[in-house]
Specification:
Blueprint lengths: L1 E4 L5 H12 L3 E6 L12 E4 L8 H5 L2 E6 L13 H8 L3 E5 L19 H21 L4 E7 L10 H7 L1 E5 L4 E2 L4 H13 L7 E4 L5 E2 H12 L4 E5 L1 H10 L4 H12 L13 H6 L6 H7 L1 H4 L3
Parallel strand pairs: 1-2, 1-4, 2-3, 4-5, 5-6, 6-9, 7-11
Antiparallel strand pairs: 8-10
Helix pairs in contact: 1-6, 4-9, 7-11, 8-9
Protein name: NAD(P)H-binding protein
InterPro entries: Ergot_Alk_Oxidoreductase, NAD(P)-bd_dom, NAD(P)-bd_dom_sf
């Protein structure tokens, strides 16, 4: 049985490949740049692009199960999309790398000018990810939707400044979410790929507890054994800095709202117990993530 991992060189996809190989499974890893993939020798690394249907034929041959990266939604339309072609080629099970927003109740429309930047962003995210989930469900194949919340890897955005200056400058030091380790997301995805009991489930996955931005910086400092300062900016200062760094204005607006919403509580997504329910173990804390990524924050 061949398992196709799309998005194989991403933060989650790499762990999916490693775990499947460790389980003794035949893995085909799809990437747009096989020469730069740096995946384990045991994986069959193949060129594939969701936007180039001509690359799908040989890649899908003999594939029975698929770890589906969310960018697959760029291909849609009856009989024309990647998902439909995979089913035609023999795929019988999909594990969709979705997002927590896909499980939010329908409400706002992305194009509504009367809603704020964060609500508009969440509506767009829900529409895209839930659309892909529905596309898979419509095929009649087995499916499991894996919906991570905010990923701990977002903290890598601080890596350059930490390496150079040992400082993080952000608004809302006490804003926090239950950030999830990408390895936890991969573990749930692999369980769904290999075990029959997860068919038809939608799993929202978070980290074990809310952790503030200031606490994240403290955890990174402990992991690398060096002091890192947190300098709190005003929301206006934070937005201005993000814009200087190349952040689009709309994204800067919803990022400010996202942080502000989680100063005194869990914001849009409180911690879930999904990882423990699926694996029998507690989810990895942010401190573990910081240790796993310590080299990313140390000077070269």
């Amino acid at each position: 049985m061949t398992i196709l991992v799309t998005g194989a060189t991403g933060n989650v996809g790499r762990h999916v490949v490693d775990l499947l190989l460790a389980a003794g499974r035949k893995v085909r890893a799809m990437t747009r740049d096989p020469r730069a993939a740096r995946l384990p020798d045991g994986a069959e690394v193949v060129y594939g692009d969701f936007e180039r249907p001509a690359t799908w034929g040989d890649m899908l041959e003999g594939v029975e199960r698929v770890h589906l990266f969310p960018f697959a939604y760029v291909t849609s339309g009856p009989g024309a999309g990647f998902v439909e072609r995979a089913v035609e080629a023999g795929a019988r099970r999909f594990v969709v790398h979705s997002a927590a927003a896909a499980g939010f109740a329908p409400g706002d429309e992305p194009g509504d000018p009367g809603i704020g930047a964060l609500r508009r962003h969440l509506a767009e995210e829900r529409q895209a990810h839930r659309g892909l989930e529905l596309m898979v469900e419509a095929t009649g194949a087995e499916w499991t939707h894996v919906r991570p919340g905010l990923l701990a890897v977002n903290a890598l955005g601080w890596a350059g400044r930490i390496r150079a200056e040992r400082v993080v400058r952000e608004p809302y030091a006490t804003s926090g979410y239950p950030l999830v380790h990408e390895a936890d997301v991969a573990e749930v995805a692999v369980a769904a790929l290999l075990e029959d009991s997860h068919a038809g489930a939608a799993y929202t996955i978070t980290g074990p507890e809310r952790i503030t931005q200031a606490e994240q910086v403290e955890a990174i400092a402990r992991a690398i054994g060096q002091e890192i300062r947190f300098e709190e900016l005003t929301p206006e200062q934070g937005r201005e800095r993000w814009l200087r760094d190349g952040c689009p204005p709309e994204m800067a607006d919803w990022r400010i709202e996202l942080l502000a919403a989680a100063v005194d509580g869990p914001g849009a997504l409180p911690p879930t117990t999904t990882f423990r329910q699926v694996t029998g173990r507690p989810p990895r804390p942010f401190s573990r993530w910081a240790l796993d990524h310590a080299d990313d924050f140390r000077p070269a």
